[in-house]
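for the writeup, i need someone to sanity check this before i put it in the appendix. the sequnce is what the collaborator sent (i think, or maybe the updated version? ugh). structure was predicted straight from it, no edits. if anything looks off just tell me and ill rerun, i have time this weekend
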Amino acid sequence: MVEMAVSGDDDVGQPASERRRECLRRPPVVRAGVDEEPAPGELDDVDGVVAQSNRCRSCHVRQSTCAIPAGRGRSLEPVPSRAMAGSESPTRLAPAEVDRIRAAAERIRANVERVIVGHRTVVDLALVAMLCEGHILLEDVPGTGKTTLAKALARSLGCTFRRIQFTPDLMPSDITGITYYNQKLGEFVFREGPLLAQVVLADEINRATPRTQAALLEAMEERQLTVEGNTVRMPAPFLVIATQNPVELEGTFPLPEAQLDRFLVRLRLGYPSEGDEDAMLERFETGNPLADISPVVEAEELLRLGQRLQYLFVAPPVRRYVVQLVRATRAEPAFELGASPRATLALFRAARARAALLGRDYVLPDDVKALVPHVLGHRLILSTQARLRGRDVEALLAEVTERVPVPLEG
């Protein structure tokens, strides 16, 4: 387990226990000038502990010992003098901007919960995906509210919305659009398909043939669409919310791994509790509240807030924790296919969005750990031996996660 501890006295005048608690919350300070090699004697390895006489780039403690087991990846890069150490990076996300992101998310959540009862965690995970401009796969048994949740999310945004009902006879051109000859104009004209919208609901996506499913790949990853040699940019933001039924497999085509990897998160609603189900009946007693939902966040605002998330601070130990978790899935023999580098990026971005939703301008390991089953679970393939033993992906992923050391705040 990686533990950050600071020992020794210095002239900062702050207790060591308080300084080290800031280790995961402060951004590294950029060194002015050219870095110099440490003088002999500055770095010593005593009993497996690396002692650094310069500042720790994470906790910024001056002239103290930054203790961490050797070989665990502690950066020994010196940082500048105290005058610069007190200044923050100008690109770091300000607390006021975090408050705006959280306020926008709360408006969307309140709007969605007028229709969806008792699924706060699922709604929050969907908000994380929307802030990252990532795609959502809703997978559950019939009648649990998958399509209703997707519609409520779409109607809460001031975005163009299209719904596509996937069926076995649906053709790729039915969703991407076609080029036809307009006799009145005397030229070929491109007619847009329903895929060219900001929010697309792909209902029962596994009922379409692989050929039609593949028509989504370019749009979902590259945010562009190529039809008969012509490339069209997708509108921004672009979000696909797909639903599928994992139980009714007759006449369905399982999504290939290449397409599953393009979904940021996979969510399952499950059955509501008795109290939530009673509240649902009361809410729907005189009508469908979905018809009364109106946009509470405009597309431009959602896009702007999502772009600002790239400046939310992530401490180097937390960033390495993301990498170690993903790499651990590749080293696990029970997984025939581990998580891809795209999954690493997805987990990193989602952790930033979750931190902002909780009102923090820094990411904690808890943010990463909470998102692992939702971001990585649908990207993994069990080995033949694991399937024969009756193992499931979720349980194995939980075991792998527990084996990865968690960086501590203090």
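The chain is about 35% helix and 15% strand. The radius of gyration is 25 Å.
thx in advance!!
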